[in-house]
């Protein structure tokens, strides 16, 4: 597979999993985390909330890693590299923390529950 195509696929998957867009948590990360949290709760009752938070954060971290690897694969030596600033990192962490708090509140209110 071509290096740019492979990098593009990795980067796209990474972007979809990363917290860099407002919609991905609702439509991608949360459903993935929810499914795994339900499975964890099936195996170990009472683990739903902790598993939901852990899997939510894992999808975000995986997104950043895949996005970085994808961009590295696509990048040419002659191209200018855009730095991921500390300000960008802080913004992304704050969004992730805010979503995490929202998830905790919704679980505590009984709005989000395990299926099993």
Q: N- to C-terminal separation?
A: 42 Å
Beta-strand percentage range: under 5%
Which stretches are low in confidence, meaning pLDDT under 50 for 5 or more residues running? none
Q: What is the mean pLDDT?
A: 85
Structural notes for this entry:
This protein is mainly α. It has one domain (3-75, 83-108). It is 73% helix and 0% strand. It has four helices and no strands. 22% of the residues are buried.
Task: Report a brief summary of the structure.
The protein has one domain (3-75, 83-108).
Chart the SSEs and their pairings.
Layout: H1 3-17, H2 24-43, H3 48-74, H4 86-108
Keywords:
116 residues, mainly alpha, 4 helices, 0% strand
């Amino acid at each position: 597979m071509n290096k740019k195509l492979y990098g593009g696929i990795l980067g796209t998957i990474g972007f979809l999993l990363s917290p860099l867009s407002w919609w991905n948590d609702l439509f991608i990360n949360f459903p993935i985390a929810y499914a795994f949290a339900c499975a964890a709760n099936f195996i170990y009752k009472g683990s739903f909330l902790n598993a939901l938070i852990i899997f939510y954060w894992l999808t975000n971290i995986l997104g950043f890693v895949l996005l970085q690897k994808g961009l590295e694969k696509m990048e040419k030596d002659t191209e200018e590299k855009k730095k991921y600033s500390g300000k960008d990192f802080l913004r992304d962490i704050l969004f992730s923390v805010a979503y995490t708090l929202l998830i905790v509140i919704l679980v505590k209110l009984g709005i989000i529950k395990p299926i099993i």
